[in-house]
Amino acid sequence: MANLAKAAQRTARLGEQRSIRSKLDYIHKNYFLYVLLAPALILTILFKYVPMYGAIIAFKDFSPLKGIWGSDWVGLKYFSKFLNSPNFTDIFFNTLKLSFYGLLLGFPVPILLAVMLNQIRKAGLKKNIQLVLYAPNFISVVVIVGMLFIFLSPTGPINQLIASVTGNPVIFMTEPEYFRSIYILSGIWQGAGWSSIIYVAALANVDPELHNAASLDGANLLQRIWHIDLPTIKPIMAIVFILAAGGIMSIGFEKAYLMQTSMNLPTSEIIPTYVYKVGLQSGNYAYSAAVGLFNSVINVVLLLTVNFIVKKLNEGEGLY
Amino acid sequence: MHVKHSNLDRFIISVNYILLGLAVLAIVVPLGYIVIASFMDPTVLLSKGLSFRISDWSVEGYRKILSNPAMLRGFANSVFYSTCFALISVTVSICAGYALSVNSLVGRNFFMTLFIITMFFSGGLIPTYLLVKNLGMLDTVWAILLPGAINVWDLILARTFFKGVPNELKEAANVDGASDWTIFFRIVLPLSKPIIFVIALYAFVGQWNSYFDAMIYLDNAQLHPLQLVLRSILIQNQTMPGMISDQLAMAELKRLSEMIKYSSIVISSLPLLVMYPFFQKYFEKGVMVGSLK
């Protein structure tokens, strides 16, 4: 990212020195580059920027007949409607809690796995373990949730075990109190292995001489991991953390939606599922867009805040 | 590694092996359970749990699944969507990535910013849905193939890759009188097989496993991908029309629907799980190129 910015600055400076005429000349001579760029540009403007413009319906009384531009402005009406709705506190904190706990529990596991994998010296064995650990990443979220319903059903294998000990099955998928744990633990089960790749790759670059030297100085394995391995992957940890924290309000909507039952709604209703329901299922486009926009704004604020904090803690190394 | 291990180190290493072994078990056991259960007579499964007696086994679930039109159609649709989506994604990101890797490109900074902004801001679900609707793409395959086709991450990946292609190659070809097009198609593209492969795999897997776009954009069941068919079986507990006739008793219905669940999980996940060990190194390569930027 830093290189990218520097390179961009350099070209910007070069660009200023060129006259408009020579720029046009360049474009004319290298038109093929712009032809190559065109599909990506068209798709991005159409499917990313037009919806950004479309988000103004959050401030309008949208009527499909009048279109986005023709509908009347209503200012912040729909935002205050959401903030004052009786559901607001529940939905808002459900979203925050689910993501915050998910980040807190899920972030360290891939790092731990990578450090553990890094200790395995037999290349073949390491590769086979990785093969197994990555596998759940290739299973679809529909199948994962389907498996949760199977394993956690009152007659499923886990309840057969529980019932043989306590006599009473636990009704996991319909109890609000279990939703978060199931969501987060199954997320770790599915994603931790795959997320560890990036750290495994970074750890492969640690100079073995460092370990040798530390070992001669009497450092034990844990001390060497703590003082040599972990500092090596610290910059990557910072980036992964910032990105995860920036997505804190938007994670896992598709899975949460599948895991919802009418009974677990008190904890499983989060802003994105709410947006889908009031918007696409009930047709309140403007209200739903306002809720969605509220969510995105919080996301961006979180991203900037976390980036700022990490930069302070990490000797000036942030995402940007 | 010449590091000498102390007793403490040897203890830590043993603990490490045990923990990793547990992690492996935590993944193998549930997946193994599903596979074994898919081959079992559901009556036995429900009453006794897993059994390893051949007489308790049955392939009825697979027979039902493989003879079900909705499932087969879903499978075919998914193959079609994933393949086309991968083709479009690769074309778009390779072309744009190459253009953006050329240092002298006028407006490069501007274009790059334009793309990167979309990684952080989006219009949201409702405005995107309204756009797709206004474009008349509801209930067409375009709603699945186009809106997600441009992935900025892939674009950065491609751009990083092309930056590593030595300039001398292009210059030499230029001296030999090759046009820009010839250079791109005859020299650069053949060199970029690894990155094409990585982006195609990511796009294919992503599309194969997704259900949400199809759920909001496609009403017509004829167009539904595999994941939507699975959703109705696994999560909404619907037995598919035509799969089980009305005359069957409730118990039989329950028996069959259990069976179908297991075998449909295996059938839908198997293609990727079987293929992925062969592609593992490419996936890893992709992650690493991406991480080093």
Automatic annotation (TrEMBL), chain A:
The chain crosses the membrane at residues 31-50, 98-119, 131-152, 182-202, 233-253, 285-310. One of its GO terms (biological process) is transmembrane transport. Keywords: Cell membrane, Membrane, Transmembrane, Transmembrane helix, Transport. Its main location: membrane. Residues 92-306 form the ABC transmembrane type-1 domain. It is a multi-pass membrane protein. It is found in: Cell membrane. PROSITE patterns: ABC_TM1. GO terms for cellular component: plasma membrane. Pfam families: BPD_transp_1. Belongs to the binding-protein-dependent transport system permease family. This is ABC transporter permease. It comes from Paenibacillus kribbensis. The lineage of its organism: Bacteria, Bacillati, Bacillota, Bacilli, Bacillales.
Automatic annotation (TrEMBL), chain B:
SUPFAM superfamilies: MetI-like. The keyword DNA-binding does not apply. It is a multi-pass membrane protein. It is found in: Cell membrane. Its main location: membrane. Belongs to the binding-protein-dependent transport system permease family. This is Sugar ABC transporter permease. It comes from Paenibacillus kribbensis.
